[in-house]
Amino acid sequence: MNTDELEHALFQAERRVLKIQTKLHCWATDDSHRRFDDLFNLVADPAFLLVAWDRVRGNKGAKTAGVDGRTASSIAVSVGVEEFVDRVRVSLRDRTFQPMPVRERMIPKTGGKWRRLGISTITDRVVQASLKLVLEPIFEADFLPCSYGFRPNRRAHDAVAEVRHLTSHSYEWIVEGDIKACFDEISHPALLERVRLRIEDKRVLALVKAFLKAGVLGEDRVLRENSAGTPQGSILSPLLSNVALSVLDEFIADGPGGPSLSNGRRAKRRAQGLPNYRISRYADDWCLMVSGTRAHAETLRDEIAAVLSTMGLQLSEEKTLITHIDDGLDFLGWRIQRHRKRGTDKHYVYNYPAKKSLTSISGKIRTLCRQSTHLEFDHLLYQLNSVLRGWTTYFRAGVSSVTFHYLRAFLWKHVWYWLRRKHPRATWKELRRRYCEGGWWPSGQKAVLFDPEKVTTQWYRFRGAKIPSPWLITG
């Protein structure tokens, strides 16, 4: 199959997949108790597998091999896309497909701890991606608006905007939740029980269980069984973790002081000394906002701990904090805190880059500028610009101008240190003429150093429950 034929086949496959996903989502939305059967044929459908292959190939991790040593590009060259997809389909149809162990990769975290990633084979990733294409529109019908992580059309900014919005409206006590090794400790039986609430097809359930139970080949080359958790880094893990953690969302939504109350009932509860509460969750990072007292927040924290224990999860006592909005909190890289507006007596809740986030980007700049001076200056600029554009784009949705101004000065200083090391005998005037065109802001032959101070900031509007589904029924 040549490139044009493959692109046409992919276009047709995407249309078919979207049409079926829309039907699944519509059926799941119309009947909250419906259990879906005969889904396995969709997982093994050529259109679903082709779209799954395209998404796996387009990921950055496509260049990383699993335990079989094969990458997406090597498969495309040695086997061919059409032949590979057909082989996967046949193995699923005749029930010979069996997930291979994931390759363990330990990633350092702050504080000296490590995060365990599980790298699946390309074949397993394609099957997981196809499985996700089938399951996601069904479970999306059940997920609540307070959940934002790894869901279509949602992002971290929505979760931060909700915290800022609610803490500006009397929800002043916050429980900053931290779950111990969430992806590693989820109970398989409890998770599969929640999957069964929607999925009746035993072949699909067996496939999900097989991925959960796939072993782990450690960095020490020792094969270990996987009795709990979902391998972090796999395509299916974010969806399964949301299925598991939806118990928390449902507990808050169904609570007597949850979001379903009318304004009148909320006011009545506060007059009676009872708390109202809302939650904002991004994957396993969540904040519970409480309109009440610290004692109310402590009680709710203990109740949440009991709810999470049903999924085999535990709250970290050291990292689960209860704070007041006047003292501020760190959430998804942001610092959210109420301050008095300069020149007035009014107080507002602001969000701006947390110190930890600023330290992180400063460390990356420092590391890049410690590279060998034998590199071309344009190469250094490309590396710095890539990091800075992504960081400032994320943090432009807040009160970040002061931080961007500081980052500009920090960046300028370290880039100039690099140039002085590259040309130790050159004068400032010579360096400015060569690298700044007589000014002070560095530029190379093909690139100009990104200026964080020129990034305009803009509030990210809280969208609430108005976030559209990607499977809207039209026409």
Automatic annotation (TrEMBL):
GO molecular function: RNA-directed DNA polymerase activity
InterPro entries assigned to the protein according to its UniProt record, in alphabetical order: DNA/RNA_pol_sf, Group_II_RT_mat, GrpII_Intron_Splice-Mob/Def, Mat_intron_G2, RT_dom
Alphabetized PROSITE patterns for the sequence: RT_POL
Enzyme Commission number: 2.7.7.49
Keywords per UniProt: Nucleotidyltransferase, RNA-directed DNA polymerase, Transferase
EC primary class: transferase
Keyword Nucleotidyltransferase: yes
Residues spanning the membrane: none
Domain named Reverse transcriptase: residues: 88-336
Pfam families: GIIM, RVT_1
PANTHER family per record: NUCLEAR INTRON MATURASE 1, MITOCHONDRIAL-RELATED, PROTEIN YKFC
Protein's UniProt name: Group II intron reverse transcriptase/maturase
Organism of derivation: Streptomyces aureus
Gene (name only): ltrA
